[in-house]
Structure formats: C-alpha cells, structure tokens
Amino acid sequence: MTSHIMPTYARQSVTFSRGEGAWLWDSEGRRYLDAVAGIAVCSLGHAHPAVHEALCRQSKILLHTSNLYGVELQAQLADRLIALSGMDNVFFANSGAEANEAAIKIARKYGHQRGIDNPVVLTMEKSFHGRTMGTLSATGNSKIKQGFAPLLAGFSHVPYNDIPALEAAIAADGNIVAIMAEPVQGEGGVNIPAADYLNRIRELCDRHNLLMILDEIQTGVGRTGKFLAYQHNGILPDVCTMAKALGNGVPIGACLARGKAAEVLTAGNHGSTFGGNPLACSAALAVLETLTGSGLIAQAAEKGEKIHAALQQALAGNPHIVSIRNKGLMIGIELDRPCAQLVGMALAQGLLINVTADNTIRLLPPLIIDDAQIATLTETLAALIQDFSR
Ligand SMILES: *Cc1c(COP(=O)(O)O)cnc(C)c1O
C-alpha cells in the first residue's frame, strides 16, 4: 500500500477515505470515532462546511501571488490573530516547525542586538518543537535526535515545570537570550505544569531581559479552553507559535511577536514562498470565524472536564492508572506500563486514539465532539483500558 513512501511513520493498517464531523470512514466503509483529530488539527471536525466554502470560494478567485506583493487575506488574518492573541504582528509559515524556526531566528537576532554573539535558547526536557534541524535541536527528546548529529548549537535543556532549574541555568550562562516552552507538553506525554508556571517564566524573562517564547502549536486555537493557553495565566509571551488547528487541515503556521520581539526581523531576514498565501489564509479565517462565533472554545473546557470525570469514574480503583489529566480537550491517561498496543485495539473497535511517551494515552478530540460521542469515547476507551491492564 505504501511501498514507494519513505518508511518514516509506523502507520496503522487503515486508510480513511471520507470524514464528517468527528467521524471517519475507511476505504471499506467502516466508521470510526476520531479522538485524535489529525493530532489536534481538525478541531472543527472533518469536512466542516465553513472551511469547505472558504476553500471553494478562494480557489476560484486567487490561490497564490507571492509575498513580493500585498496579500489582502494575509493582512485580514493577521488582524484577527492579533485581536485574539494580544500580540503585535505575525509571520506566516506552512507548518509548526517552520513557525518555530521563525521564533528561533527572532531569539538569535535579538541576542545579537544585545551584543551576544553565541545566543542560547533554553528549552525543556521532553519538549517537542518539530523535525527540522533547528527545531529538532530545540526539542528535548534524545530518541528522535538519534542519528542526526551534528545538531545545531545554541540550545540548552532544563527539566519542565522546574523554575529553580531555569533560574540556575540563567545564572550559569550569560548567553541565554530566550526561554521556549509548551504551555502543556503534548508529544512529551500531556504534561501539565503548575498553574503559575508560565507566570513565573514571564517574571524570569522580564527580570533577565529574555524573550519568552511559547510553542502553542498543539495547545493553541481553542484546544485548552482559551484561544491560546497562556490566556489562562493572564500573561503575554514575547513570541508565540501556532499551526496545527489554525487551518483545520490546510497547512498553515504562524509566528506571533510582541513589543521588542516584533521589531527584530526586517526586510530580507526571513521568508517563505507559500507562507500566508490566499488559500491557506482563507481557510484560517473561516476557522477563526467559526470558532469565535460559536462558543466552542469555552465548551472545550467543559467537554474536557466531562471526559476527564467520566474516565476517572470508570477507571476508579484500577491500580495501573498513574494519572488522568487534562487541560481542556488535551487529555492524557498515563498507565504504569507501555501501552502503544491500545491504539490498534481501539482501532479494531472503531475508535482512534494516540499513545505518546510510551505510557500515556493521548486524546485530542475535535472541539465539535458532542455528548453522545463523548459517551462512546469514554465508555469504549475505559473498557479497553480495563481489559488491557488486567
Ligand atoms: C506538532 C508540533 C510541532 C511541529 O509541527 P509540524 O507542523 O509537524 O512541523 C511543534 N511543536 C509542537 C508543540 C507540536 O505539537
């Protein structure tokens, strides 16, 4: 089936041919409940009419002109993102890794402006920032770096959710120019930090004149119950990256900057052929309009609580559950053993789930998931986990 595709993924043996809302159908016509949403991408569900209409409309008018010229929809999308985020400006890319590359370049040039010739960005252990050489170097997971040395210099890793470790790293190295973190670590195992973690990072960055970079590629666009996860903390970062759900499946990434960070990159410093083209921007505008006009973001918090409570109740007393945790619709169920097998077991029952960091079931259902689907998800999954861990 995939013999001419480079084997970079361990794929499940299923191919989907159609989707609608939270449902997918495979090439044999079997139906699946999608609690992965393309890894936090299809938050409005599959085949959403607003996205469909935007793409049809725009594909008839104009797909691409180049960033050599003004792009009206890009300007409109930037205005919407700025209004929703509290940031000052945006660079558009085509993926999460690319958005993070822009963030890293901002941090480095900001360092050079401060007279630091070898700027270092502090990132977290168990973090995930992408697969390009720069973002792979930023990532705090030695398993996925294996075989790709030499990695880029200029990154230093500290434990996540550990403010004293950050303080010590800053004190030990005068070349540090930025702290980069995910508000909740996704790939790393749905790791939710202390409630004031981001506030403490903000304070450290202010005190030491560092840029605070938040990778909201997975947490952003409403997934945690706020448009951006930092909005739970009442702070603003200096740089924030988004991608995944921004286009509901149409590739688009964004690097947002504020204040001094918004002034770092100038003409000729960075670019992208496709970044922010009219087609991608039309999809993202439709996504933002639908999300903000619907109450779906606030509901993400409620639905997340509902799923958490249902799983907690169904799995109460199971000694193999280490923890069930969530921030909105980013949900992790950590077991005391590797549980990647559960993905195939769930698939056989018509349910799509993900396992990350070996031991943690990760659920990223679409924000449009309804009560009946939540019941199906939690009942099916709880039964599977009971079976598996017996
Ligand atoms: C998915 C992800 C990325 C990488 O995004 P790509 O679009 O795959 O390049 C980076 N950071 C986080 C937190 C992610 O979840």
UniProtKB/TrEMBL annotation:
Primary subcellular site in the record, as a coarse category: cytoplasm
N6-(pyridoxal phosphate)lysine PTM positions: 244
Sorted UniProt keywords: Amino-acid biosynthesis, Aminotransferase, Arginine biosynthesis, Cytoplasm, Pyridoxal phosphate, Transferase
Record-linked Pfam families: Aminotran_3
EC number: 2.6.1.11
Entry binding sites for pyridoxal 5'-phosphate: 96-97, 128, 215-218, 273
Catalytic activities: N(2)-acetyl-L-ornithine + 2-oxoglutarate = N-acetyl-L-glutamate 5-semialdehyde + L-glutamate
InterPro entries: AcOrn/SuccOrn_fam, Aminotrans_3, Class-III_PLP-dep_AT, PyrdxlP-dep_Trfase, PyrdxlP-dep_Trfase_major, PyrdxlP-dep_Trfase_small
SUPFAM superfamilies (UniProt xref): PLP-dependent transferases (SSF53383)
Textual note on the cofactor: Binds 1 pyridoxal phosphate per subunit.
Pathway where it operates: Amino-acid biosynthesis; L-arginine biosynthesis; N(2)-acetyl-L-ornithine from L-glutamate: step 4/4
Family under the similarity heading: Belongs to the class-III pyridoxal-phosphate-dependent aminotransferase family. ArgD subfamily.
Subunit: Homodimer.
Miscellaneous notes: May also have succinyldiaminopimelate aminotransferase activity, thus carrying out the corresponding step in lysine biosynthesis.
Record-given protein name: Acetylornithine aminotransferase
Organism per entry: Methylomonas koyamae
